[in-house]
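hey m, so remember when u said the tokens were messed up on ur end? i reran from scratch. heres the input so u can diff it against urs
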Amino acid sequence: MKKKLAIIGIVGLPSNYGGFESFAEQLVQRLWDDYEVTVFCQRSAYREHSGTFCGKVALRYLPFKANGIWSIPYDMLGMLKALRFADTLLVLGVSGCVLLPLLRLLGCRKRIVVNIDGIEWKRAKWSGFARWFLHFSEKCAVKYADAVVGDNQVIVDYVKEAYRRPCHLLEYGADDTAPGQAPGEEAHVAPSPLAGEFAFGVCRIEPENNVHLILEAFGEGGMPMPLVMVGNWQRSDYGRSLRETYGSRPGITLLDPIYDQGKLNAYRANCALYLHGHSCGGTNPSLVEAMYLNLPIAAFDCNFNRETTENKALYFSSAQELRKHIRETPPEARRRIAQAMGEIARRRYTWKRIAQGYADLF
């Protein structure tokens, strides 16, 4: 008889939101032959509630939002429902982990594995009570889970140092990433700006992803290649302000989110330089996917990104540094960086290895 696994803490399947969702979609496909998998989903995020994913994964819908302050009751309700049927709970993120001490006090013997995501409470967007709560939730997760996962060696080292508890390193796979054809009219962009070399970036438009630095670097003009940037510009004042400031400048093309993986990969696989501005959050799935596509990468200079790329990418911490890299790094140097990124990705970021790591913990 198959053991029953519940996955809690994501918006849901099929994936249409972020890294955790993409991770869950890849993971379940490699586990459903050996596990009876259930994934909890945000009801309002889906027009149709099919009840299954690919006919093999049960989907259960919750009435709360999966992000922001509502992630707390969302995750907690998912855990409580999962306790009724699952042998193992995989919790992605720490928001609902304040429930774990109570569950253990009441004698819960279910196996609970928590991926603590990044060091969430240290993110600049949190302050005051929210920061304290996330830190407390992290403590509960590390103390009361049967196994704790970090997706970056920096996080693993942090958990070991801060809590004197073991933490398992399991990153993300990228070998499902396929290069696409060169973008053109089918991607709703006139092909002329992309006829030659171009730089490309995709992310949520948030200050911690340093989109302002990237746009500032290109916004002054005089760059040897244009920029194409994809993101949710209308979601915040920060994004709307950047789009208003830079959206009409020569050499800059700002696109709304692209959820069609083929179209997105068409941009990524054909760019001359991939820009990764994330400054926190551990190993970022979009970064390892770009590495798997053998792209030369310029990443924001932080310990997470250096660990992911093994110190073999270009790094910037200001618009001036990024401009210098783009202007002064010759094509041959970019090719060497691209080759190094591909080698690292094929050695470290494969879904078979990641899925087996989780299966061992379960």
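this time it looks ok to me. The longest strand covers residues 35-42. if urs says something different then somethings off w ur setup not the seq
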